[in-house]
Amino acid sequence: MSVTTFDLVQSSLKARLRRAERMQRLRAGLLVLPLFLFVLLVFLVPIVILMTRAVDNPEIADNLPRTIEALAEWDGTDLPGEPVFAAFAEDLRETQKTKNTGLVGKRLNYEISGARSKSLQAGRAAEKMESGPYKEAFLALDPLWGKTETWSAIKRAGSPTTSFYLLKAVDLQWSPAGEIEQVPPDQRLFVDIFIRTLGISTLVTLATLLLGFPLAYILATLPPRHSNILLIFVLLPFWTSLLVRTTAWVVVLQTEGPINNLLLWLGLTDEPLQLIFSRFGTVVAMTHIQLPFTLLPIYSVMKTISPSYVRAARSLGAGPFRAFWTVYFPQTVPGIAAGCLLTFILCLGYYITPALVGGPSDQMISYFVALYTNRELNWGQASALGAVLLCATLILYAVYNRLVGIDKMKLG
Amino acid sequence: MGTSTDPFVVFSDVQKTYDGEILVVKNLNLTIERGEFLTLLGPSGSGKTTTLMMLAGFEVPTHGRIEIDKVEVNNVAPHKRNIGMVFQNYALFPHMTVEENLAFPLQVRKVPKSEIAAKVERALDMVQMPAMGKRRPAQLSGGQQQRVALARALVFDPKLVLMDEPLGALDKQLREHMQIEIKHIHERLGVTIVYVTHDQSEALTMSDRVAVFNDGIIQQLARPADLYERPENSFVAQFIGENNRLNGKVTSIGNGACTVAIEGQGQVAATPISVRDAGSPTTLSLRPERVRINPEAGQYPNQFEAEVQELIYLGDHTRCRVSVLGNANFIVKVPNAEGVPAMSPGQKVRVAWKAEDCRALDAF
Amino acid sequence: MKKQMMIKGSVAALVAAGVLATAAYASGSLTVVSWGGAYQEAQRNTIFKPYADKTGAAVKEEEYTGEIAKIRAMVESGTVSWDVISVDTPTALQGCDEGVLEELDYSRIVDKSKILPGAALDCAIGSDVYATIFAYNTTKFQEGPKTIADFFDLEKFPGKRGMQKNPMNNLEWALIADGVEKDKVYEVLGTPEGVDRAFAKLDTIKSQVVWWEAGAQPPQWLADGEVVMSTAWNGRIANAIKEGAPLQIVWDAQAPDLDMWAIAKGTPNIDAAYDFIAFASTPEVQSALAPSIPYGPTHLDAVALVEPELAKTLPTHPDNLALAYPFSAEFWGDNMEELRARLNTWLAQ
């Protein structure tokens, strides 16, 4: 009897605890809900859109459904038969009405250069074709339609999803024989660009670290009165827009700009150096812009390191360098890790600065993402490049995590 | 200890200023004996920590000379002085384990590996922390960290160990325990220890001698008992232990005795310490436990009417605040022994003390 | 990383969001979108204001940099807030093919036969003729370059050159400078050997080329001495000359092209849009543009209305037109992707 009463009391106590905790969780949940929705809407959803855009392939599948269906049986060895051409003609008549022939042509043009105008031409011709045989009509129209590669390209492009963009983003393509191969040498670009993007980012990260670490140390050890003034100078770049800072570098670095004039005046060089439109200019300008991002986490970590550690090391017999290297430096590693990761990842996305200060061989992947987004209107390719960059970044992040340990990272 | 003459650390005419205007340490002359436990005691800003830092080598004296073992060290870098040091916040290297922390000074000294392991183990045993070697400082309690810091300062067998308020962050009970432990270690190793604290009871408990600092000057350098019983100036009297003050003027002086007039209140018989002439102002210092309440008449030269203001019962004794000779904060410690009369606030009593217990010091 | 993905990932979403935001206050007035800068200012004074004065309609202006992506995002999301858009020829063709531009009913605009041949497209009508030319800094040479071959001649004319970072025009010029007849350019460029030949010619000056992307860069670089000569849009150079820069235009092998009016598909203001384009296509309005910016009219009757002295500075002047090569937008529609990739690969080497 008494046992039952005890159990009863016990269970109701648990229930009350649960209820109290649930209320608390609910309230906490409500507080983070706006942030969650914000992140979902402007961060996660775009990533999902990006990923789907990179493999989405609706142009042919939506507009040439009959042709694709007719091509399903085709084995790809010989030219397809009359039914395929008839279906093609019917599809084209439809796309002429919906004004989608251009879309079809543009998509085919990715696979076969020149197919765009031929498709438009075929679309106009198809409207006039009253009856078959369509095969001969198309063959007479342009030799393009008489090639088996054309039809295997249409068949390949007709799948609702495609690996075309992603493969192209790493300089690969499907061969007519259906194997993955490298694109022709004069079209191989993106692997180099990715390597360059990582290379420039690494260089800038190292440069900001080399410049930022001693500065952070000075800032952290100076009395606040002086360090605050210095910190303002460090933060000054934050107060002007990226574009203004980049343009300022254009002025400073140009052939008849102050640096070259000074070098000429001092007689250090006979003719102006190519500072602008070069890798040098790009790295200098990016380093300037990124310096605070690397410096501030290191600075704030250094602020938390009591000077007594180095004193303790000195009193225990370590010389100044040894005390710094074995006692002070290891404690700044979390800040270095955070600052470098921040700068490196921001660098990967640089666009304006290399575009204005760099030469043609200094453009990074974002340049091409913008190019495909704005100019070429090839969002599939833009998304694929973004997706590959995202994956590369995640892989690097994982490697970094292994080496440094993200949990050890400190922003301050 | 006062009789031994084996000077180990000598400060001669040492001055220190940071800004070129204010002397933080004024003309310091101090000799520390080999094997001595000397405490630098004083309020913050008194110059005691600066003195310690000059000894450690982290601050350079502006003037004067510092010798360790007969060698001038003014320009010797901290890491070449072979001094063990315990910091206020322990300064254990957070990225190293306890063992690595202890091994650090030995590695720096290029001690062979096998020897390092043995020494580290011995040091951990000494501070009663065996089997903690693999932990990191953050995984230890404050007291444990303190022990590790102590072990690290001792592991390389320095002849001199400096401690900068090492127990400041511990709670009272642990602090008192560690005080005893440090004292035992000191006795066992015979190492010279210079200890900085602002806690007078800590200074009295542990030290062979205490140097009381104020305003950049050593006010008094003495054994703990002398410091308490025989303060040489008002600051020391006030800083060490509880003290009753009475301000007055010397009316007569001679033969190791003097009379002091408390303005408009009466005459007090006292022992002159830092007064020379009649007419000079003075502050009388009187320990609360040396005052008697309602003694038998004629036993004490000083007897005055007083009114009980407040009584605080403290177990073994009662703290009794009375107003006497115009001082309303005059404390008397009344032992809770047989035969002591019960009192109540507002009651008129007589308070009395001996002339020897009443020291005429500099005017405060 | 966040920033990274924001930039890359949400391009579509952001474009759409921006469009939604502008759509909210766009109804009720006619929105005309152009290229900004001196060009749009000239249009404002000679077209937008007179039109507003005449009809009493409010003209709301916007600027863009020719990204068809924005138009497409609007049309796809059904929130069209741009009514009349100034586009270039490739955009006009592409936009028409992809169905983001309205097919024009010329009966509501102008007599099609009065318009320059090739300037009346299905979805866009030419508003003015500009040219891509090259210009040089007159202080750098005693005797300046005269032909496109001189542009490629580093021995006679040493120094840095500016070129647009785009295969279009550049490959044609390379071939013409290499001796190809102007009207055979696309025949040659249409073969792989021709492309190789063009790039081989570009190779000879590659080390001295600085690549521009914004129309404002060439006059700036020429004036700063960053380059000694540069390809450019003729109006930009003419403006710099007007402001006192020591520059000279070379008309040889000029590539005339059209600025065109187009209507975004699905705009609710289609009647007003037609009305505006009809107004802008009258000879009087067209001939008024040239004094502000040296771009030629497309209406044949307007040519006669331009002052003779001024007419000489226009791409459409017979003397200048005779030097032009027959630019093919069609060729670039087919080959832009591949040749741009080739150019970028070549640049990266």
UniProtKB/TrEMBL annotation, chain A:
Q: Which GO terms describe its cellular component?
A: plasma membrane
Q: Keywords in UniProt for this one?
A: Cell membrane, Membrane, Transmembrane, Transmembrane helix, Transport
Domain (ABC transmembrane type-1) spans 194-400
Topological type in the membrane? Multi-pass membrane protein
Cross-referenced Gene3D superfamilies: MetI-like (1.10.3720.10)
Tell me any Pfam family this protein matches.
Answer: BPD_transp_1
| Superkingdom of origin | Bacteria
Localization per record: Cell membrane
One GO BP annotation is:
transmembrane transport
Q: What is its main location?
A: membrane
The record lists the membrane-crossing segments as 28-49, 193-217, 229-253, 273-302, 323-352, 379-400
What family does the Swiss-Prot or TrEMBL record give for this protein?
Belongs to the binding-protein-dependent transport system permease family. CysTW subfamily.
Q: What is this protein called?
A: Putative spermidine/putrescine transport system permease protein
Automatic annotation (TrEMBL), chain B:
Every copy of the ABC transporter domain together lies at 9-240
Q: Name one GO cellular component term.
A: ATP-binding cassette (ABC) transporter complex
The question of whether Nucleotide-binding is a record keyword is answered with: yes
Report keywords, A-Z: ATP-binding, Cell membrane, Membrane, Nucleotide-binding, Translocase, Transport
| GO molecular function, a single term | ATP binding
Q: Which domain of life is it from?
A: Bacteria
Gene3D superfamilies for this protein: 2.40.50.100, P-loop containing nucleotide triphosphate hydrolases
Which reactions are catalysed by this chain? ATP + H2O + polyamine-[polyamine-binding protein]Side 1 = ADP + phosphate + polyamineSide 2 + [polyamine-binding protein]Side 1
Q: Which residues cross the membrane?
A: none
Q: List the EC numbers from the record.
A: 7.6.2.11
Q: Which family does it belong to?
A: Belongs to the ABC transporter superfamily. Spermidine/putrescine importer (TC 3.A.1.11.1) family.
Its job: Part of the ABC transporter complex PotABCD involved in spermidine/putrescine import. Responsible for energy coupling to the transport system.
Q: Which NCBIfam families match?
A: potA
Instruction: Tell me how this protein assembles.
Output: The complex is composed of two ATP-binding proteins (PotA), two transmembrane proteins (PotB and PotC) and a solute-binding protein (PotD).
Which protein is depicted?
Spermidine/putrescine import ATP-binding protein PotA
Instruction: Give the gene name.
Output: potA
UniProtKB/TrEMBL annotation, chain C:
Cell compartment(s), UniProt: Periplasm
Which BP terms in the Gene Ontology apply to this protein?
Answer: thiamine transport
The answer to keyword Amino-acid biosynthesis applying to this record is no
Keyword entries, A-Z: Periplasm, Signal, Transport
List the Gene3D superfamilies hit by this protein, alphabetically.
Periplasmic binding protein-like II (3.40.190.10)
Q: Its family?
A: Belongs to the bacterial solute-binding protein 1 family.
Protein name as it appears in the record: Putative spermidine/putrescine transport system substrate-binding protein
Organism (species) = Dongia mobilis
